[in-house]
Structures are given as structure tokens and as C-alpha cells.
Amino acid sequence: MTIAEAQQVQHDLRLRVDLTTRLTAPAGTVAGVDVSYESGTRRVAAAAVLLSLPDLEVVESALAFGEVNFPYVPGLLAFREIPFILDALGRLTRRPDVLICDGYGVAHPMRFGLACHVGVLTDIPTFGVAKTAFTSTFADPDDPRGSWSPLVDDGETVGRALRTQTAVKPVFVSVGHRIGLDEASELTLGLAPKYRIPEVIRQADHLSRQALRK
To answer: What pLDDT does residue 114 have?
Structure first.
């Protein structure tokens, strides 16, 4: 796929994003996905980890391996990672109630980040939690855990800077598909009882890195 073709796919899929639907019941399971890159090669490992809620127990996990064939282009990261994420998700035996990506949802220049892309293709309620704000701006939230401030891009609120641990720098939450920002923020806090990063993404990151080392 060329860059121009990827941009057209991104444009077409963006029209299918659902930002109006909310969860109809409390989520009982949540999956996190992450992709790790082997230094100096094109080899990657994608991990999907499924946790039960609210106890955060690991239900199952899966890995997928491959080589990246799409160049690094800001705003088109999904086209590097989607094949491996979908492969790892397909190896889970249970469909998650909610899916969380290490990345962005609508907090993206095209309003179609990785979480939107995965959400549309799987039709699972999906949102993104990122470690940095990419192109958006925000005011620093108050220090207590649970404090937040709007994440703004070009005058539009596209997510939240959310403090998951008191006096620790925030994470950046944005919806991807079929879930609201309040729900995504509440789940993010529930998944981060000890650490800044939500447990399901933290474990997916650890699993993918460990798999590459092995």
C-alpha cells in the first residue's frame, strides 16, 4: 500500500467511526494491545492481553510476530501495526467487552488514530491511552489522582489529560469507537490502581517486549 492509498483508506474508514454509542452494561473484560519493535530490524511482536474487571486478573494473552512493511509516517502509524494487532486479537478465544490501544483515538490530526482504526475494523468499543499528547495541547491537571483537563486540538476537545496517580504526569485518553470519554476515563482509572499506565496496556507492553527478547 502506498502512502496515498493509506490516506484514502484512512479517510474512508473515518466515516464509519461511531462517537455516539455508549456501553450498554458494565464491562466484564478488557483487552489491551501493544506492539514492540526489535532494534535494527523490521521485526515486531504484537501482544493482546485480556483482563477481567474489576479484579484485573489475566484471563488469557496472545502474541503475533511479523515484519513491518509500511514506512514510518506521522499520522499513519496504524498501517504499520494493524496487521499484527488484529492477528494477536484473533488468537484470543474470548471477545473483549472493551479494547484499549497504546495510542490515540480521535486525538489525532485526522481524528482517526490507532484506536479508531482498530475499533472500526473489530467493531469493539475501543479507546486509546497515550503517554504523550502528540499534536494536542492541555493545561496541567491538578495533582490528585483522577484530576483531568481537556485535550484540545485546533480548538476542538479531543480527549483528556488524566492524572492516574497523584503528582505523576498524566496520560492522554481519547475515544476510538463506540464508547464515551467519561466511560473511557473511568475505565482508565480503574485499570491504573498502582501505576501511571493502565494495567492492561502495561502488561501487553511487557509481554511483547519479552517475546522479542526471547
So the answer is: 96
Which residues touch 37 (CB under 8 Å, ≥6 apart)? 43, 44, 68, 212
Name the nearest CA neighbour of 108 among 139, 171, 170, 153. Answer: 153
Regarding the domain delimited by 3-213, which CATH topology (the fold level of the hierarchy) does it fall under? archaeoglobus fulgidus dsm 4304 fold (3.30.2170)
Give residues with Cβ within 8 angstroms of 53, minimum separation 6.
Answer: 26, 27, 28, 29, 30, 190
- Termini Cα distance of the chain: 31
> Would the CA dihedral through 103, 131, 203, 74 be positive or negative?
positive
Q: What is d(CA 61, CA 47) in angstroms, rounded to the nearest whole number?
A: 7
**Sequence spans of domains, the chain:** 3-213
Please say if the pLDDT value at position 1 is more than 90.
no
Question: Cα-flanking dihedrals φ and ψ of residue 34, to 5°?
Answer: -155, 155
pTM assigned to the model: 0.94
